[in-house]
Design goal:
Strand order of the largest sheet of chain A: 1-5-4
Shape of chain B: globular
Strand content of chain A: 5-15%
Oligomer: heterodimer
Low-confidence stretches of chain A: none
Number of domains of chain A: 2
Number of strands of chain A: 7
Number of domains of chain B: 1
Structural class of chain A: mainly alpha
Low-confidence stretches of chain B: none
Largest sheet of chain A: 3 strands, mixed
Strand content of chain B: under 5%
Structural class of chain B: mainly alpha
CATH topology of chain B: Four Helix Bundle (Hemerythrin (Met), subunit A)
Order of helices and strands of chain A: HHHHEEEEEHHHHHHHHHEEH
Largest interface: A-B, 22 and 23 residues
Number of helices of chain A: 14
CATH class of chain B: Mainly Alpha
Helix content of chain B: 55-70%
Strand order of the largest sheet of chain B: 1-2
Number of helices of chain B: 8
Shape of chain A: globular
Radius of gyration of chain A: 23 Å
Chain lengths: ~325, ~160
């Protein structure tokens, strides 16, 4: 507790401060239901397009207020942060009598004017939403920066962003790398899958490490079938202006319906290799402007071909790790 | 067996009714057949019974994806061409269990019928550009699916009898 600050408060303000400090968590009824909105926000920030970030931010905040059953809050996403001697303003929550409450967020740093990193942006967003919740959900008469306040902010953050178990770069980190790095990454994957599978037999490869966790053969079939979808998306984007990109699967449904557990892993890998070869052939032939062509994905928002390759790199990392664990019997 | 053009002349209800029967017809056709019979290709070029069932299952998903794309876009989308033989190889249809595949087909078909059930008259006329068939509306797709079902059910019965 910040004692000097606390000591200057009136007795009734101190009571509000103590109550705020005591509440360490805001629990979302179904955090997973908000994950698509979080994913869309990562894509929006990667696009560096303010209207896109505005829409994704509105969506996430609306989903949050709906999930918690509190009144909505207006949102405004602005470009570069204002800066002063004390530092940069990241976000602001304002309530004026007779007006709806409002959150303002800045998506670029003051000095470098770079787009704020996703986690920092989400933290700021949740910080400002936290002020709104103090009034609208917890019915506090004031909203103080108590230790409890920061814990509540963190509790929301961790419900929205599953901590990666891996050491691989996140999707957003792949967005920041160079196209050559991304291409080198995706070109290497079939060979890496082959070396993880090694000479293991069919029975070992069809073994699920835990209930609900895929067996190695299922991971390979998933990579194969997703590669087909990537190919279809590249083709759609090149054939049409800003096509609607569809959600496919979902992955578990494909595994079940297409009976992945009965497939032969080596054959599936050969077909994945073939499909990946076709993807690379399409990509290397693209002109710089074609790399920036894109389509609208229902969950992630606008995706350019370049961004799809970043997602492919991240997706490969993710499933290679899963495959490496699965062959060792780990979920 | 009606041609696609003949189906196109039938009232929509009749065509929709045709689609509702296919799950049961597939189940009846494969009932009691051994895995060896279901996996037997009548010749080097023609599909085995279980490959036909898996094809219908995956085609149903693909139809659904096309409808979704047509409905999501204001302009006619360019529809990708299908390559069923490639999918049969890649997705290892011969290793599938035919009865499970029929179960999955039934679910996908029910979803298709649900989409059809909600279309407005204007939406029935929305369409896409097919690489072989040219512009094809959702109403045309309904006729195509009715014909496609007949065609593959017939092929399935022949495959089970060992003929092409």
């Amino acid at each position: 507790m910040a004692f000097s600050y606390y000591a200057r408060l009136t007795r009734s303000q101190q009571a509000v401060y103590r109550k705020s400090d005591e509440i360490a968590e805001v629990r979302l009824p179904q955090p997973a239901a908000l994950h698509p909105a979080v994913t869309a926000l990562t894509t929006a920030l990667a696009s560096e397009d303010r209207p896109h970030v505005q829409r994704a931010t509105e969506r996430l905040i609306r989903d949050l207020t709906n999930a918690l059953g509190v009144p909505p809050v207006q949102v405004e996403v602005l470009a570069a942060r204002p800066h002063a001697k004390w530092g940069e303003l990241h976000g602001l929550y304002t309530v004026e009598r007779g007006k709806p409450p409002k959150i303002q967020l800045w998506m670029r740093t003051a000095k470098q004017r770079r787009v704020v990193a996703f986690r920092t942006y989400l933290r700021t967003l949740l910080h400002e939403v936290g002020h709104h919740l103090d009034y609208a959900l917890l019915r506090l008469r004031d909203s103080y920066h108590t230790e409890g306040f920061y814990k509540r902010e963190s509790s929301l953050f961790h419900q929205l962003v599953a901590e990666p178990r891996s050491t691989s770069p996140s999707a957003e980190a792949w967005f920041r790398r160079t196209p050559d790095e991304r291409m080198a990454r995706v070109a290497a994957t079939p060979g890496q899958v082959a070396s993880v599978l090694g000479s293991r037999g069919a029975q070992a490869l069809a073994q699920r490490p835990a209930l609900g966790a895929w067996a190695p053969v299922e991971v390979v079939c998933h990579l194969r079938d997703v590669e087909e979808t990537f190919g279809e998306r590249f083709a759609a984007i090149l054939a049409m202006d800003e096509p609607a990109l569809l959600e496919v699967g979902p992955a578990d449904r494909w595994a079940e319906e297409r009976q992945y557990l009965r497939h032969d892993a080596a054959t599936a890998l050969a077909h994945f290799r073939h499909r990946r070869g076709e993807s690379l052939e399409t990509l290397v032939g693209l002109s710089p402007s074609q790399w920036q062509r894109g389509g609208e994905h229902p969950a992630r928002g606008r995706l350019s071909i370049d961004m799809l390759v970043a997602l492919m790199a991240w997706h490969d990392d993710n499933h290679l790790e899963q495959l490496t664990r699965a062959v060792e019997g780990q979920p | 067996m009606p041609t696609m053009e003949e189906y196109a002349k039938q009232p929509r209800e009749q065509r929709l009714h045709r689609l509702t029967r296919t799950g049961d017809e597939l189940a009846a056709a494969i009932k009691g057949q051994s895995d060896a019979v279901l996996s037997r290709r009548p010749d080097a070029k023609n599909w085995a019974a279980k490959e036909i069932v898996c094809h219908l299952r995956d085609a149903e998903e693909s139809f659904g994806g096309r409808f979704e794309q047509i409905l999501a876009m204001s302009a006619d989308p360019t529809l990708a061409g299908a390559n069923p033989d490639r999918l049969a190889e890649e997705r290892q249809y011969l290793r599938n269990d035919a009865a499970e595949a029929v179960g999955a087909f039934r679910k996908r078909r029910a979803e298709t019928l649900e989409i059809f059930g909600k279309l407005t008259p204007a939406q029935w006329e929305k369409g896409g550009i097919h690489p072989v068939r040219g512009r094809i509306t959702l109403d045309n797709f309904l006729s195509l699916m009715a014909w496609h079902d007949d065609n593959h059910l017939d092929q399935l019965r022949r495959a089970l009898a060992g003929s092409v």
